[in-house]
Amino acid sequence: MWGLVSLMDHTPGQRQFANLEAFKRYFIGKGRTTEAEFAGFVAPLIEQAERYSDGNRRAIARLAAERGITLAAHDDATPEHVAESVALGTRIAEFPTTVVAAKVAAAHGQQIVMGAPNIVRGGSQSGNVAATELLGLGLLHILSSDYVPSSPLQAVFQLAADGTLGLTDGAKLVSGNPARAVGIKDRGEIAAGLRADLVRVRPHDLPATDDHPHGQRVPVVRAVYRQGARVS
Asked: What angle do CA 8, 10, 14 make, to 5 degrees?
């Protein structure tokens, strides 16, 4: 049995939004509030966070530990955040928002996850640390889809096109490494005795952009195999 629980706190003043001004810009930009209404919008959220965040975080971590479920920490921004996550038993650092948080997480043996769209678009949409920066520092182990299912495969090919990472090492970020991080042992690489879950693709090249001066490389899926049998 395997599973994954992620501890997330998107309340103002916490993790991704440790900077309250960043929270303000984000939600005004999303049309959720206005400059004039912001104080009234944010006050109850801060109150709820102070009342519930810490207790819920610890309760969820305890339940995950009791059930042997892998625990991830989401959006840690400071060494103190990472220390708290380590104390709760987390093994995965999802989207650390700063280089310093990523360094501390790696020092504690946590596997670091970033979003593949961060690679494809050339940076974080929230203004946090770029995935390629962490990769260059040896602080990136896993890429997730982060709401864009096609992005992990596209990120692997884009990293190769950029000359950042070869296809074999890139594929580990979206296959073998995440499988090992959550305790899945029967898949994640092409090897005898493992599941033959495969995707056959053809690369399609697009013009260069400012973020990708060597051109964009988009994988076009030609076939999908599940346990060795073609399903698409």
From this structure: 95
Answer for the pair 112, 142: CB distance below 8 angstroms, yes or no: yes
Q: Residue 206 has what pLDDT?
A: 92
User: Exposed, middle or buried by CB within 10 Å (0-12, 13-18, 19+), for 133?
Assistant: middle
Phi then psi for residue 12, to 5 deg, are -60, 135
The number of residues making up the chain comes to 232
For 136-154, write each residue's pLDDT tens digit: 999 999 999 998 999 999 9
Count of the separate structural domains present in the chain:
1
Which CATH number belongs to the domain containing residue 163 in this structure?
A: 3.20.20
Q: What is the pLDDT of residue 190?
A: 93
The reply to whether the predicted model has a pTM over 0.90 is no
Angle in degrees, CA 179, 93, 2, rounded to 5: 35
Give, for 224, the enclosing helix (H) or strand (E): strand 216-226
Cα–Cα distance for residue pair 213/161, rounded to 1 Å: 10
Provide the domain limits for residue 119.
Answer: 4-230
